[in-house]
Design brief:
By secondary structure, the chain is of the alpha+beta class. The protein has 17 helices and 14 strands. Helices cover 43% and strands 13% of the residues.
Length: 542
């Protein structure tokens, strides 16, 4: 039944009646394992809504519930015949239940007699459910056939609304049959809702108080359509297009090609400038003596994918008060049966060293717990077994006596990762890095939800090692250099030299350079997330 509010006639929407929740929940849960092409890989955002549920909810909000257009449904002979067959089944079942209830009033009442209108609405509702079930699948995010079916249903419901409000005093403005209503999310956050609204054909508008959220939404819903259909401007792609005669890319594929090209340029240039701080490791004869698995790699130089470090504090035991002992939550490097590896802390006289071994440790529980004794900052001295209580760690850290020591090296072999014992040379190279700049912004001191200051890490710059700071400042500077090169290449490709930046709604060479730089900036942001001293080794995934 149509509803009239403030001179506007509205219809009950599908979301007000029913949804195929099982299919939506299943698709939403699956998204957690998607890592390629998902917006969460662009930039992390807390409480991000699953794209599947956002897509389903927006569709169900826009589409009329079939109970609102039963007359139209029954005017179709095929639908009416199907509804009549369904009605016959339901009436027979209803009569059976009615007889049983009359003979035994304790049984549930059968309710009202089924109607043809209800059957027609339910059949149509199932059809809409099937659209939603297809729509929420991850593969459907780029399946135009599925998306077009959903968009067609939205347009159909919208045109019914326009027809019913043709006499509205603002009908021309509010009920344009040729233009769907806009979608506005005032607290857009990670952008799931405006992104899916755009995917379903709506004009999306997103706002947020957090500038990071604003940038995420611009990168997902504003920039791609702005430069959709344009060929890439990087010299390699331009040469390929010139050989082929024309650009065959769709949507924002040209923009994506440029992000890949200039991202690779930044990576290669960074390696040229600071690659000496990230050297390969040679598998020597000495290293292979106690590790038969390293024999085939002897003499090879392997690319290091991770240097694993342990924080240290002075031992609380007076006998070892000059020894910097490690605070390690686990000595397990890889728990996988065929690739098991762990760190064995070997105590030698008044010191210790870390030795990486393959296979399973003799005492798996001890290796799993590292030097940790319990929850929170509770550890034990690797030299004496003495407890290291939180107050001792806090005191050492805030006195500037918290250090670090190389725990293990992870390199890339021919058949997967290779776990190696730390070397003095590798440790020295890392510690010789000298950053030219360090963030000095103070972190909030609220131990209930933000603990780094407890450990003497007072500024955001303290979260990074000197080598990490060198890398991040290098990559940040290269984004600016890349932007200048992108602008030059865009001008060479024929983009207008209007000098108008992206934030002033430009669409020439300057704006395009800004657009590509947004995505390159996100890459640096991801490096900051993964390249800090707070980053941990996730043994469950290796």
């Amino acid at each position: 039944m149509n509803r009239v509010t403030d001179m506007t006639t509205t219809r009950k929407k599908l979301i007000e009646v029913a949804l195929p929740l099982e299919a939506i929940n299943k698709a939403s849960a699956r998204e957690k394992s998607i890592r390629h092409g998902h917006p969460s890989t662009l930039h992390l955002w807390w409480a991000r809504r699953p794209l599947a549920s956002a897509r389903a909810v927006i569709f169900a909000q826009m589409v009329d519930d079939p109970s609102e257009y039963v007359d139209t449904l029954l005017s179709d002979p095929a639908i009416k015949r199907t509804a009549n067959r369904e009605l016959a089944k339901r009436v027979a079942l209803w009569k059976e239940r009615k007889i049983k209830h009359e003979s035994d009033p304790s049984l549930p009442a059968p309710g009202h007699e089924p109607t043809l209108a209800e059957c027609a609405a339910d059949i149509e509702r199932e059809r809409l459910f099937k659209i939603i079930e297809d729509l929420v699948k991850w593969e459907s995010t780029t399946n135009e056939e599925v998306l077009e079916r959903a968009r067609a249903e939205i347009w159909q419901s919208w045109r019914r609304a326009c027809a019913e409000n043709v006499d509205h005093p603002r009908a021309k403005e509010l009920f344009d049959r040729q233009k769907l209503p806009g979608f506005h999310d005032p607290f857009a956050g990670g952008g799931a809702l405006p992104l899916e609204a755009q995917r379903l054909g709506l004009e999306s508008h997103a706002t947020d108080l957090n500038p990071v959220a604003v940038l995420i939404n611009k990168a997902m819903i504003e920039i791609p359509p702005k430069f959709a259909g344009l060929p890439p401007i990087n010299p390699v792609s331009r040469a390929e297009v010139a050989r082929g005669g024309h650009w065959n890319g769709k949507c924002a594929q040209g923009l994506a090609e440029d992000v890949r090209y200039y991202g690779q340029w930044i990576r290669d240039e960074a390696e040229r400038r600071i690659g000496h701080l990230y050297p390969k490791i040679e598998i020597t004869r000495e290293m292979a003596e106690d590790r038969p698995d390293l024999k085939p790699l002897e003499g090879r130089h392997l690319t290091v994918v991770a240097w694993l470090w342990a924080r240290t504090v002075k031992s609380p035991n007076p006998a070892f008060s000059e020894v910097d002992v490690p605070l390690v939550s686990s000595f397990i490097l890889s728990p996988m049966a065929d690739k098991a590896a762990y760190v064995d802390p070997v105590v030698e006289g008044a010191g210790y060293r870390f030795v990486v071994k393959v296979g399973s440790p003799k005492d798996a529980e001890v290796a799993k717990n590292g030097t940790k004794l319990g929850r929170g900052a509770n550890f034990q001295c690797v030299m004496s077994g003495s407890p290291i209580v939180p107050d001792h760690i806090y005191g050492e850290a805030n006195a500037g006596r918290m250090g670090e020591r190389l725990l293990a090296i992870v390199a890339e072999g021919e058949r997967g990762r290779v776990y190696l014992s730390p070397t003095k040379a590798m440790e020295t190279i890392a510690l010789q890095a000298e950053p030219e700049w360090k963030p000095q912004v103070a972190m909030p001191e609220n131990p209930r939800w933000f603990s780094p200051p407890l450990y003497g890490l007072k500024t955001y710059g303290d979260l990074f090692s000197p080598r990490q700071l060198v890398a991040l400042t290098t990559f940040s500077g290269l984004v600016l250099e890349a932007r200048d090169q992108i602008k030059r290449d865009a001008l060479a490709a024929g983009h207008a030299d209007d000098g108008t930046p992206l934030n002033e709604d430009g669409n020439g060479a300057s704006a395009y350079a800004d657009a590509v730089s947004v995505y390159l900036g996100f890459l640096v942001s991801k490096l900051a997330d993964k390249g800090s001293t707070l980053c941990t080794w996730r043994v469950a995934t290796v």
